[in-house]
């Protein structure tokens, strides 16, 4: 009977383990990276967790060993327990071991961080990313095609809301109380001495994809090529996050005034697919709905996509995706309809009164 129970236990265990994915378990909940940088970070985080688990098991084992073998009822009454204080070799050991662990983790953290944040001039695609409440705009600034030819899509810098303010018409004239600058001297503008409506750091391109409350913006990118992102915010602080990249970068307005680097690169995307992107910085009412999608396609499909949009400037992003046999809309997330009648009156959201319902007792006038 015992042998039968043992065999049954082994069989049940094998059945349960057949549904487990060892690689997923070793990531400890982190997604599978689709970039070389993401895979480096997964390795770093995995081994950091393993080191923490090993230390945790050791500490808990020592605690339970002390509780079990040094109980008060086992001690002889009236006998003072043996003291281990001022044991120099022991104290040096438990001081040196944590130091070595921290030094090793610090070394590998710096190595991975430097690799992830490294930048060079051989990017094949340069994307301008603009975050705004509560959506995204993506533009193709530079593209190098597979045949070596290039596309320059940059159009202008400017303001996303209105015509760029002229220098001298903003903070200087608004706050100048006198030739001396007023009682307290010259008053700075609200954005590092500049007028708040001047957003000349934002970039506008000939080919752009803009999200709305009815459409998720789909950013099409090629696999196997270095890609550069130039990120900026038109209003508050946002955050550009694609979980499968295992990388997140805050998106600031006025990056120069905020002393932030708005440019980062990924070495490549290793496989085709659709990956959801999110804003990871609380930015207001519809922050949780501020999603986008990265659509990674083969390089030749990406070339066809850009050339289609270049040749058909009036075509939508959905039409360009369909032209390369891709789903025209996002497949990883859905838009959130933000329409609402704020004053309670009948508006775009429709009339809430419906006397034609089956159980309604209200007479139709």
From TrEMBL:
Residues 156-194, 339-365 are annotated as: Disordered. Its main location: membrane. Its EC number is 7.1.1.9. PANTHER family: CYTOCHROME C OXIDASE SUBUNIT 2, CYTOCHROME C OXIDASE, SUBUNIT II. GO terms for molecular function: copper ion binding; cytochrome-c oxidase activity. Keywords: Copper, Electron transport, Membrane, Metal-binding, Respiratory chain, Signal, Translocase, Transmembrane, Transmembrane helix, Transport. GO terms for cellular component: membrane. InterPro entries: CcO_II, CcO_II-like_C, Copper_CuA, Cupredoxin, Cyt_c_oxidase_su2_TM_dom, Cyt_c_oxidase_su2_TM_sf. Residues 172-186 have a biased composition (Basic and acidic residues). It is found in: Membrane. The chain crosses the membrane at residues 46-67, 88-110. It catalyses: 4 Fe(II)-[cytochrome c] + O2 + 8 H(+)(in) = 4 Fe(III)-[cytochrome c] + 2 H2O + 4 H(+)(out). It is a multi-pass membrane protein. Subunits I and II form the functional core of the enzyme complex. Electrons originating in cytochrome c are transferred via heme a and Cu(A) to the binuclear center formed by heme a3 and Cu(B). This is cytochrome-c oxidase. Belongs to the cytochrome c oxidase subunit 2 family. GO terms for biological process: ATP synthesis coupled electron transport. Residues 122-308 form the Cytochrome oxidase subunit II copper A binding domain. Residues 1-24 form the signal peptide. Residues 22-120 form the Cytochrome oxidase subunit II transmembrane region profile domain. It is an enzyme of class 7 (translocase). Residues 156-170 have a biased composition (Polar residues). It comes from Gordonia lacunae.
């Amino acid at each position: 009977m015992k042998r039968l129970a043992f065999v049954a236990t082994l069989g049940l265990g094998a059945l349960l383990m057949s549904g487990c994915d060892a690689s997923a378990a070793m990531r400890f909940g982190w997604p599978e990276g689709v970039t070389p940088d993401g895979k480096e970070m997964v390795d770093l985080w995995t081994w950091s967790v393993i080191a923490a688990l090993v230390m945790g098991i050791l500490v808990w084992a020592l605690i339970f060993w002390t509780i079990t073998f040094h109980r008060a009822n086992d001690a002889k009454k009236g006998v003072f327990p043996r003291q281990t204080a001022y044991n120099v070799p022991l104290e040096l050991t438990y001081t040196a071991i944590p130091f070595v662990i921290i030094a090793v983790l610090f070394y590998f953290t710096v190595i991975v961080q430097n690799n992830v944040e490294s930048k060079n001039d051989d990017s094949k695609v340069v994307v301008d990313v603009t975050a705004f409440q509560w959506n995204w705009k993506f533009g193709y600034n530079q593209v190098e095609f597979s045949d070596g030819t290039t596309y320059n899509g940059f159009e202008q810098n400017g303001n996303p809301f209105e015509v760029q303010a002229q220098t001298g018409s903003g903070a200087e004239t608004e706050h100048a109380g006198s030739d001396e600058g007023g009682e307290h001297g010259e008053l700075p503008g609200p954005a590092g001495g500049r007028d708040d409506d001047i957003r000349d750091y934002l970039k506008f391109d000939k080919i752009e994809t803009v999200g709305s409350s009815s459409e998720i913006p789909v950013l099409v990118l090629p696999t196997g090529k270095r890609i550069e992102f130039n990120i900026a915010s038109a209003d508050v602080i946002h955050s550009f996050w694609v979980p499968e990249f295992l990388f997140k970068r805050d998106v600031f307005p006025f990056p120069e005034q905020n002393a932030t680097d708005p440019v980062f690169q990924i070495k490549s995307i290793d496989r085709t697919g659709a990956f959801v992107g999110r804003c990871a910085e609380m930015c207001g009412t519809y922050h949780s709905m501020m999603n986008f999608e990265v659509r990674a396609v083969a390089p030749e499909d990406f070339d066809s996509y850009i050339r289609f949009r270049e040749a058909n400037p009036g075509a939508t992003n959905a039409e360009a995706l369909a032209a390369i046999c891709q789903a025209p809309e996002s497949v990883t997330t859905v838009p959130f309809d933000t329409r609402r009648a704020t004053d309670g009156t009948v508006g775009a959201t429709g009339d809430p009164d419906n006397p034609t319902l089956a159980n309604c007792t209200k007479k139709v006038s």
